[in-house]
What we know:
The chain has one helix spanning 101-104; strands at residues 17-20, 23-26, 79-84, 88-95, 107-116, 118-127, 136-145, 159-167, 172-177, 187-190, 208-216, 225-231, 234-242, 252-261, 274-285. By secondary structure, the protein is mainly beta. The chain has one domain: Jelly Rolls, CATH 2.60.120. It has a seven-stranded antiparallel beta sheet, with no helix packed on it. The chain has a six-stranded antiparallel beta sheet with strand order 5-14-7-8-9-10. Strands 1-2 form a two-stranded antiparallel ribbon. The chain is globular and about 45 Å long. The model is unreliable at 1-73 (pLDDT under 50).
Amino acid sequence: MTFGHRGVGPYGRRAVEEDFGDVTVLHGVIRDGVARDGVTARGVSPQGIAAQGVSPRGVALQGVALQSGDARGGAAGRLAVVEDAERGRVLRVHYPAGRVGPEGGGAEFRVRLPGDDDLRCAYWVRFGEGFDFVRGGKLPGLAGGTAPTGGARATGTNGFSARMMWRAGGAVVQYLYSPEQTGVWGDDLPYDVPGAGGARRRFRAGRWHHVEHRVRLNTPGERDGVVQGWFDGELALDRRGLRFRDADTFTIDWLFFSTFFGGNEPDWAPTRDEHVDFDGFVVRATRASG
């Protein structure tokens, strides 16, 4: 990929566009140059994450600089831009040994989207060499409304969240907070290998993987919501007939950059200092035929 031009698009005047035939990929996710929740389109954080160029491939965080207090628990101190021989400049997130949750490790912040009922989120991710997956942890995804997490109940009128997770052994799931979840915590939607007897897709330490997920919100009063997931270019998750909302009180409002070990109990914690690299974030609308 190479950078396209800056132009007017559905994500605002400061979105960075690339044209891949009939699909326009928007890297900015910043409407008119400013996103809410204290994430701004200008400036350089004290940790040196510049507003221009988290990645030369147009990470969706281009145009976003983390200012003091933007991320929970001082997470900006656990973010760095590093050079990668394969992909150039990438975003590296650190997870200190023995720490769980976004206050203790990783990073968590939200970037506002202009609102849509059918979006896709894609990015590249690489777990460090020898990464110990322990019991699991969170990865970025789409969300809406109040973005319920941490045991907060999705009521059908307050919002949803659809982050990704790694589970023990690197198993891949979409982690869904919705009105129909089966317990206090979110539901796992596993990434299964088609035609392999229910075998699970798994992240491999030291290897770049490309992940993409699609969320289509249901029509209020109908069960026509969709969650799909692709792993290294292959469809591995396709759930339909889902219910996210009972009224038009929210849309898909957020790119939710959320990554940490946990769970919240000590046996979720990393056994040593770990890191994960991210690159090439893309958020785009799904065509009606999808």
